[in-house]
């Protein structure tokens, strides 16, 4: 039996299928209503995140809205967007200083909470944001938040 080697995050990011708009005639669930749903790609997510200026953050919702607008969809799949953001983040760590510098730490939850699923968890994300001048506060041992989200939020089309 042949042994499979795991794909690197860089390879997952760079060789994934192109973004695709799927037309849902009927809703699959409340999260997936009828309409044109974008299934982005790790590379498309990375490109969108690379636009976020230093010292600013973008909510996951705003990221999905930007992607949907770019590809002419009604909305972007929330599940795959989260997966692709994590792939883009892991690729940054694999490549180091020589690779694509996607500032994944600038993406936060819609309520300002930091993302614990990214490399290093919420504490590592807070450290990077604090270094850029973004106010972050610990709300528990493993949870952080940008308390003044309106002051730091960035939307490319606003």
Report the sheet with the most strands, covering strand number, pairing sense and barrel closure: 3 strands, mixed
Radius of gyration: 16 Å
CATH level-1 class: Mainly Alpha
SS-based structural class? alpha/beta
- Estimate what percentage of residues fall within beta strands: 5-15%
Following the backbone from N to C, one meets helices and strands in this order, namely HEEHEHEHEHEEH
Number of strands: 7
**Proportion in helices:** 25-40%
Average pLDDT across residues? 92
Shape: globular
How many structural domains are formed by the residues?
1
Q: What is the annotated CATH architecture?
A: Orthogonal Bundle
Number of helices: 6
Q: What's the N-to-C terminus distance?
A: 54 Å
The CATH homologous superfamily is named Winged helix-like DNA-binding domain superfamily/Winged helix DNA-binding domain
Q: Can you put this structure into words, describing what you see?
A:
This protein is α/β, with parallel strands linked by helices and 158 residues long. The protein is built from 6 helices and 7 strands. The chain has helices at 9-15, 42-49, 60-71, 78-95, 121-131, 149-152, and strands spanning 20-24, 35-39, 58-59, 75-76, 107-108, 137-138, 144-145. α2 (42-49) crosses α4 (78-95). It is globular and about 45 Å long. The model has no long low-confidence stretch (mean pLDDT 92).
